[in-house]
Write a structure and sequence with these properties.
Number of domains of chain A: 1
Order of helices and strands of chain A: EHEEEEH
Helix content of chain A: 10-25%
Shape of chain A: globular
Strand content of chain A: 25-35%
Radius of gyration of chain A: 16 Å
Oligomer: homotetramer
CATH architecture of chain A: Roll
CATH topology of chain A: Thiol Ester Dehydrase, Chain A
Number of strands of chain A: 5
Structural class of chain A: alpha+beta
């Protein structure tokens, strides 16, 4: 699974991520996806939370298949790739492992539509952003049209 | 949308549900689904968190399509129905509205597999539980076999 | 305890509020305080999240004593009063009950300093806001000076 | 501040830790304290979440003073020391920094009472646990009696 995603990032679990059943609650996997996707874009310089005019990414669809449980204080490792790069949208695929033993935990999907921060209407991905996102497209991108 | 789900339940948003973009973060919709599904089962007497031998429901798959934003202090209304009742599994469908204006917010999907609390292996839904779950099956259930 | 606070507000617990010990995690009480304090101010018209120029309340200090446990799906009832109204600051006191049986759960304290939204420097409470806040001061306010 | 606490531990912020004001919400500091205190005890072998008979630590009091804001994707660094070791209780003091620039963020306080996992009544700290906890007492412990 490590080979299937070009970028990996860690999310340590927190005490309260465990629910009454003693494992990390299903909701946390989505918080982890949101965290690593945005963190990667910030680190790559294509998302700037302090710029009030830059496009922002809204989640229009997400999903997750759970393969095994994980427990605090385990550390989650999340692998990122992009399955589809549209005019305004990015379809992320996220592989999740337990970092200490490479046990596959979950496979997630997260669809961003980038919008104007004021009108909240879809806006084409700026070219510099598209160039960076392209490096995660796997297999090699067929750029398609969408909203 | 109100007619498409037989049971409705409210989840008031919390201050910190709003993220930096000023709307309820996509993760919260999953927390809300988890909350109303389990709350309904508890109220119906088919989930007892204090019984250490009763089957527990693990989430093996979930997903959500987001239709519109919602902001704290709005109240979410969630409608429940069951799309499929398997031997051990329950596929929930959840419609989400902004309670104050009936604006559709999201459509979710949440698949439970019921397992033995100790071995965490799938276990058939007990008959009394199945009877209650059957009341939410929509359209009328074709009981199918699965794990 | 119901008599000791002039305003009460409900916060239903969520599935994932329960931690591995089967009760609502200590962190949630703070999320509940933040939720009801801000919700009350919004309902009273003295906090407007959509006005980019209105003062915002930052938490500079908080605390909580825990008296008893509470479990999802219980509903928390939170009572609000103001112990001290400064030039820019508000010291909230929050009583928390289990709504179904009036069992005292916790006693919290939450200190807001209102600041200019841009400079984030303390700003005097606007008069209309002070008038509304005054209705929660208990016992009758001695308005004191602070930052 | 780095010198004032013998043990330090990191908690990376998550996307949804930022609230509508664009900084990490005050509630998150408590989640971070809970996470590092328990994680340290687990790593030191004095807290075992899988042992159904071992004493568990319940939070009976907590508090926090906020000194500066912190923003996702910043990493929090938390320093731990023990201000007081009672018969059953541990009073933790937690210093919080922004890891990238050592900016003091907050000072927290967190009081655990250890209880029997079944009766939930206070139980004396087992000797091996006390020995390990003693290493964090600062200044050198005067062991006092309490519940």
């Amino acid at each position: 699974m490590r080979d299937a995603y070009p970028v990996w990032s860690l999310v340590p679990t927190r005490w309260n991520d465990n629910d009454i059943y003693g494992h990390v609650n299903n909701v946390i996997h989505y918080a982890a996806m949101d965290t690593v996707i945005n963190r990667w874009m910030i680190e790559e310089g294509i998302l700037d939370l302090t710029d009030p005019e830059a496009p922002i990414g809204l989640c229009v669809e997400s999903g997750c298949r759970y393969l095994a449980s994980v427990e605090y204080p385990d550390v989650l490792a999340l692998g990122l790739r992009i399955a589809r790069l549209g005019t305004s949208s990015v379809t992320w695929e996220v592989g999740m492992l337990r970092d200490r033993d490479d046990e596959p935990i979950a496979e997630g999907r997260f669809v961003h539509v980038f919008v104007d921060p004021v009108t909240r209407r879809p806006t084409p991905l700026p070219d510099p952003m598209r160039t960076v996102l392209d490096t995660l497209v796997s297999p090699p991108a067929a750029v398609e049209e969408d909203t």
